[in-house]
Amino acid sequence: MVTQFVLRSDKKDSTGRCPVHLVVYFDGARLKCATGEKCKPADWNADKQKFRASYPLAEEANDLLKLMAGNVLAWWRKLRAAGEAPTLAGLRAVLRPAPAPEPEVVQRHSLPTLFEQHRQALRARGYAGHTLRQRKMLCSWLLGFESSRGELLDPTTYNLATHDRVLSYLRFDRKLAPNTIASFVRGLKVFLKWCRDELGLPVPVELRKLQSKHQNGVKMWLSAADLDALSNAVLPAHLVRVRDVLLFCCYTGLRYSDVFALQPGHLHEWNGSRVLRLIQTKTRTGVSVYLTEAAGAIIDRYAVDGERKRLLPVLANQVMNRYLKKVGQYACLTGDVVVTELIAGEVVKKSVPKYELLTSHTARHTFATQSLLRGMPVEVLQKVMGHANIQTTLLYAKVVEDLQHNTMRRIWEGQGAVTESTEARDSQICAVEPLAA
Length: 437
Known about the structure:
The chain is of the alpha+beta class and 437 residues long. It is built from 16 helices and 10 strands. The strands form 4 sheets. It has a 3-stranded antiparallel β-sheet with strand order 1-2-3. GO terms for molecular function: DNA binding.
C-alpha cells in the first residue's frame, strides 16, 4: 500500500487556497479522499508532500498528515488480516472519524427537594404531624453531614460506606443517643424505599443492611408515695395545673398528645360513671378508659363553664416538661436515680435526682407499672394503653422489679402482700372500663 498527499490546485477557492487530498494505492486499486486541510500553492511542498514553513502552524499541520497516513496504514492492515476489501466509506471514516460522544451528565438528585417531595407524599396519605416533623429533622441532619464533611448525599449513590460515615457524624459530631440514631435509620430506610419504589431511582444499598439497634432503657415511673407527695405538694399557682395534668395522665395512661386534645365530646356516661373514648393521635387506634374518682375530680376542677374546647389546661410539651422539674422539686422527689447513657460510643453512668427526669411521658410509664403492680392483667393494660402489640406492654412488666419480687415471694414463701398498700391510690389508678362482650 502507498499513500500520497496531493494539492488539488484545480479546486482553488475564492481566497486562493486549495484542498489537500490523500490518495491511497493498493493491489492495483486507488482511493482518493479529501483530508479537510487547505493551503495556498506557495505553502505546499509537492516533492515532500507536506506544508512549507511559511504555512501558519505548519508543524502541527504536518503532524496531522503523518497521523492520517499512520491511521490509514493501520486500517489497511486490519482489513487485510480479516480478508476484507477497502472502501471509500471506510477511508473517509478513518480520516474523519465520528466525533466522540459528549460525556453523559450525571444528574444529582437534590436531597432537600426529594425529602420535601417525600414529606408531601406522606402528608397527602394522612400521616401524623410528628412523623412529618421527624422527616424534616432527618433531612436537617443529613444536610448537616453534607455541610460538615463536604460530601454531597444522593440516594442513587448511597452505600454502606456512606451510611457508616453518616452514623459516625450523628454519633460523634452531633452526639445523638443510640435510640435517636435508631429512629433516624428507620426513617432513612422508609425514605430510600420511597425513592426506589415510587420514583424509580436506582438505590444501590440493600435496605435490610442499614441497621442500628434500639436500646430498651429503664423507664422511670412514680411510686404511690411519689404520687401522694405530688398531690399534697404546696405549689405556686402557675404550677398547680401542670401538676394536675401530670396526675391525670398517671391515672389514665394517656399520652401528652391525647390529653392535649381532650374535648368534652370524649366524655361518655357509663353505668353511673364516666369514661373517655378517643382515637389516639400517635397510633390512630381507639381506646376506652374508665375515669376514677381522682381523675374525674381533676376534670371537674377545670370545667368552669360549658364552652371550653379542651377538658384540661395543657401547656406546650416543652414548657410543661420544664415546669415539671420544678413541681418535682416542690414535691421533694429528690431520690437519686442512676442513668446509663451511651454517648459517642462510651458508656456513661451518672446519678441525678428523680425530679430532673420527670416529664409528661413519665405519667404513662407510671400508669402502666402501677397497674401491673396492683394486678391488672397485661391483656387489659394493652387495651387501655392502645398498644397494637402485647410485646410493647410486656416491656413494662420486665422493668417492674417489685412485680418480679412479689411473684417469687408469693410462689416460694406463700406471701402475697402488695408493696403499694394505699388502697385509695389503688382504686385511682387501676380502675378501667370492662371490655364489652
